[in-house]
């Protein structure tokens, strides 16, 4: 993923400079755009072709009980399902930039640009649904990320410095436990314990705009639950990387020079340690922003994950497609961002 | 409808309820529950609890599922029909009274129940004075006609019931208001509006259940200039005491008072609370906990608590529970286009082989599941005989199945060693799967090897609703449930049992019953003006269906319904087999949490 | 890395080698090969000695072995205790609440871990049989990923050029894909019978293929990186100079050196796959009834978290123990194979 780090490139190496950064950026953006197009095509293929093989009539499922064939046909037309697949895909692409109009039986529905499809189940354009639910998921992901970064990295660094100690062993076993528990299990358990049982926290979602305090209170349990999983992972990675880095020559040199230990660890070692952490953070955040399905459904958070789970249950393809796309997009963007950050953080990384 | 719990149809307080109540007292601590409400277990099933006329406050619904649509034309969920009375009015509607009386009709927009003439084929209604839309304009007969015409636009407004369309235009001559050539878009010939206050329906054929069909929300008025077609469900234009303030599908919904509604014009709606809030949950256990904690007042879906909440509530808050019939019959049916279920004896073998008690337990036992179903007509439909008609001895001696009889039937069917088949069951409710597994286990004992195939519950119409697909997949047993659309054998059984209702897609006559005797009885029922005779025909139809061994009924479904302590004027109505939403009020002083929760409930 | 499968498998991060130990990629040297015969012992032997000293890893390994035995012998063991995972025992159920009679989820001499609510099936027997599904999916999907990842990784690294570019882009694409979402959607549109299989077999088959398919880029990237760097090494150059064919070089020189990272990744991937299977069954797109699966048991148990907590705890602990065992063992293997970590 992280092109900057991958393997050895035999191409001439460019030193970072404004021009190099620009070409690099353009190249990466282009690659990301191509990737997105490919993903759209694959998703289209899966959702529109597989039901055909399996004999599931998408249009019929939209019509409901006692559907008369004419109604099914009309819905099929409205959805554009009778068109060849490439036409459907093209219509979709076009809609993103130019908007789209669906019409049948005297009903005209306009979906303005950027049109990422239209849900005929809930009679809404997909894009507003995505933008409406995005902040919820973003809040969940960012809040949890802060927690897991702080605690995960701190635990990892401490473990690496006190390798073999009781602390190290304990922290690493706890971390293993963290990554070995399904999140819906820890989620339900924490809900049952802290919200219903002890009544310490009320994990109810309140929009930030309405009551920031209530929002914060309601998010604490989801944050902790999600962060527990990731903190464990980050602690393990941090420890491994830190140990690796501490064995490197430049650290020995720094120590030999008589630099205080705090500077050696805090400035030199941490810098290298953060590189892989950042890579992971980019991908994890990207993926989480696309919807933390299990966390959101456990805690009733009205985010993208909940939307997509409902959509899957209702076979609401346009919404599924929209969320898949937004997730892919955020993963791609997050990675891009991370790669650019690399160049800033780690001078050894070149823009290959 | 079959996927949903929410339902309609009248409840008869059965003797069984008393038995169950006795059983309950042994496990639950006292019968008090919420002391302040001073009411008890199952109190609201037959009478009004916490009668009161206090206005104000926020009524807070919690739900695990959004309505299928809030467009009056497009909904088929019972709870949605119940809720729609907040913002829509019909010519006639159900009385706001507990129990059985709640399922009888009364005039709403109309001044009376309609004047019938022309040998029962013409109905004339006059609208009340001062009935108005939320912008203050009067509701006219043309608005009513336009609202009804929308049923014809199935290509745009799919999903709702189409009884009026089938009755008024059996040959499909009209194409709906959106393709209407006439200038006023009121081209439907069977309905006339001689003036703004008068509406006349001319039925090609008599149908004794016609007024019932006018009480379904799909017969509500819709104003042409406010018809946003497919998007209407996002913001319906109100003719009732409340109007939409905000709605975010799958998240929340809020109704506020409609200042243009005049109480004097409406004999039905009391409109006690100031706002009606709905909050949607994705975690049912979380929702139940919050109901019990008092953060919310009642469940919008009216489908009962989940197992965990059920236990907590029964043990600690029994007085806040009611245990009504849901109106559903839960059953398995045998598509005759899948061998060997074309043979009556093989069908009988399955019915005899099934362990009815085990099936009842799988569905939640006598309280949360319901009594063992012994025939196909739910006790809430006139003409039903309940457990007194038990042709297969399901609730009697053979409640655990009768292996000997089953083997006999297998031999008669030419499959003495049993056979293999597939049980089709929806995947979206654990109880459905548990039922299938129970059936699978008991059939194993008579040599029938049944595979369970779970299908996507949202895909019903294309999967089990397509006879071709059923044959292709070899679904010999389909597990399903059904409740009446309106309280009669026609409203319950016609789509299921009438041979004319077999469809290519969206079929619900899964068994593919094509019995002329049954079809003729339905025709006779529709023509019969006499109530007592109608009841007799209903009984006959039920017997014919059971004699054909097309169905294995499981239970007459019941559920445990949470009644929040703040609620006033609570009672179960047999019209919707749930609390009568429109009559509910709240006693705001009762819960300190009210203000906080109403905030988060939007 | 973990990304696409976000939460349930987020731990996936078989990152230990790829990211956590950047050296492993950039200096493939680290693993195997050129640490040289300092002490006159083979690298495999060194690794084994190291592993032997890691008690946690050994415990993990022992648990894994025990689980495999349990899974293989599940029908035998459940016969021994006289329980069938699919037989109902409604007499053990309180008809009012649907929960098991007696305390602790109905534990008795007959039902060692109690019975399920509603239908009273024996939990012990179901846990045993559930182990089969978990391990089957865990191992086989890892196998799919390893085969695909190794082959494509080597091809990319060895041939370079446009082949490399194409494969790398595919890997990037797969990693950017919302995996769990995609798997759920795909499994739910799969037919009920295919290739002569019905019921749960179809689901298990599809899960193995799909989880494996989304897993290969993790291995593919590492293998590619290793291959790329090894290609430049003297012994490969030497072999090439001596006129060895490409295939020969692949088989003789590269593969042995790839064993270590592949082993490490596999042990990291298996627990991830087990969690994914559990999550899929939890969401209702996993195995079909009456087949027992841990994830599905956990999913059903959530409705009884307070009234019958044992029902939730048993499969939860089963998943936890298994995944923990694999992780401990995987860590041990990684440490043992990585000469830089000096435990």
Short note summarizing the structure:
Chain A has 352 residues and is mostly helical. Helix content of chain A is 72%, strand content 4%.
Would you tell me the structural class of the helices and strands of chain C?
mainly alpha
Low-confidence stretches of chain A: 1-14
Judging from the principal axes of the Cα atoms, what is the shape of chain A? Answer: globular
Question: Overall mean pLDDT score of chain A?
Answer: 77
* Percent strand of chain C: under 5%
Keywords:
heterotrimer, B: 602 residues, alpha+beta, D-Maltodextrin-Binding Protein, domain 2, Dipeptide-binding Protein, domain 3, 3 domains, five-stranded mixed beta sheet, 27% helix, globular, disordered C terminus, C: 343 residues, mainly alpha, MetI-like fold, 14 helices
Describe the protein's architecture and organization.
The complex is a heterotrimer of chains A (352), B (602) and C (343). Chain A is built from 13 helices and four strands. Chain A has helices spanning 18-54, 58-63, 69-79, 85-98, 126-161, 166-180, 183-197, 212-246, 249-256, 261-289, 293-298, 304-314, 317-345, and strands spanning 100-104, 107-111, 118-119, 124-125. In chain A, strand 1 (100-104) and strand 2 (107-111) form a beta hairpin. Chain A has a two-stranded antiparallel ribbon. A two-stranded antiparallel sheet of chain A has the order 3-4. Chain A is mainly alpha-helical. Chain B folds into three domains: 71-234, Periplasmic binding protein-like II (D-Maltodextrin-Binding Protein, domain 2), CATH 3.40.190.10; 242-324 and 562-586, 3-Layer(aba) Sandwich (D-Maltodextrin-Binding Protein, domain 2), CATH 3.40.190; 325-558, Dipeptide-binding Protein, domain 3 (Roll). In chain B, the strands form seven sheets. Chain B has a six-stranded mixed β-sheet. Chain B starts with 14 loop residues before the first helix and ends with a helix. The relative contact order of chain B is 0.18. With 343 residues, chain C is mainly alpha-helical. The longest helix of chain C has 37 residues, at 123-159. The interface between A and C is large, with 73 and 70 residues. Chain B: Residues 105-499 form the Solute-binding protein family domain. Chain B: GO terms for molecular function: peptide transmembrane transporter activity. Chain B: This is Peptide ABC transporter substrate-binding protein. Chain B: Residues 1-30 form the signal peptide. Chain B: It holds the Pfam family SBP_bac_5.
